[in-house]
Amino acid sequence: MPGVRSSTSNRNRTICDPSLPRAGMLIAFDFDGTLSDSEMTVLLGEEAGVADEIDDITERAMNDELSYAESLYARAELLDGLESSAVDAAFNRVALRPGSADVIEALSEAGHHVAILTGGFEQGVERALETEGVSVDTVVANRLPARNGTLTGDAEGPLIEGTKDDALADLADEVGVSMDDTVAIGDGANDLPMLEVAGLAVGYEPKPAVEPHCDTVVASMAELLDLLEAKAVL
Ligand SMILES: [Mg+2]
31 CA distance to ligand 1 centroid (A)? Predict the structure, then answer.
């Protein structure tokens, strides 16, 4: 960086001024319950007529009463045999919450690497982003495999046994960002690992088990925008 060669240049002082926005950070969002106010497995469960059972398992997992892997496999099993048209219908209903697209756009425009790290599913995330006409730099998500046009009842992907702290650290390494320059935003127990290692841990209406581990908590995307401005991320 030419501006940092001379300690007397204005540019150097500017770079070190903590009140000015920093570019090139890594911002990692959870999806269900954070960027979206729905839960993908519940939407799928509604199509399969098992929404209540799935909701119950999800709640227990998000409150850290059940391991995430156990809960995801149990939910996938309840979806065994669901037809592709119903899976499609569920994914078409996945939506970003109001203001999410604006936050993603503002972060991208500011030069940050925006990532979604979710135990939810690629297709649902992609559908929701497409609908809003926004994109992110990286999506790390799981998949529900299908055979002969129906779900197999299994689940696969990097964030079942794998945890979001490793996913965040790997991504930070890949994009060349130090962990101090990472921000994690999430709501559930499966976000705890990434909230614990991120430079800034933001709870989005976090579950009771999660809140004590957050540096700060927000209850809307407008509040998140304000926070990111206050922290000189934007
Ligand atoms: Mg969540």
Answer: 6
Ligand 1 centroid – CA 1 distance (Å): 38
202-217 pLDDT per residue, tens: 999 999 999 999 999 9
Residue 110 lies in a domain: yes
The DSSP code for 209 is T
Distances (CA, A) of 153 to 77, 118, 121, 197: 4, 19, 14, 33
Question: Looking at the domain assignment, is residue 13 inside a domain?
Answer: no
Cβ atoms of residues 215 and 201 within 8 Å: yes
| Maximum Cα–Cα distance across the chain | 67
Percent of the chain with pLDDT over 90: 85
Residue 214 in domain = yes
Can you give the pTM of this predicted structure? 0.90
Of 32, 165, 187, 191, the active-site residue reads 32
List pLDDT tens digits, range 85-110: 999 999 999 999 999 999 999 999 99
Q: Is 215 a catalytic residue?
A: no
In a domain, 158, yes or no: yes
Structural domain span for residue 56: 23-230
**How far does residue 203's CA lie from ligand 1's centre (Å)?**
10
Closest CA to 40 of 66, 79, 70, 84: 79
Tell me whether residue 102 is one of the annotated catalytic residues: no
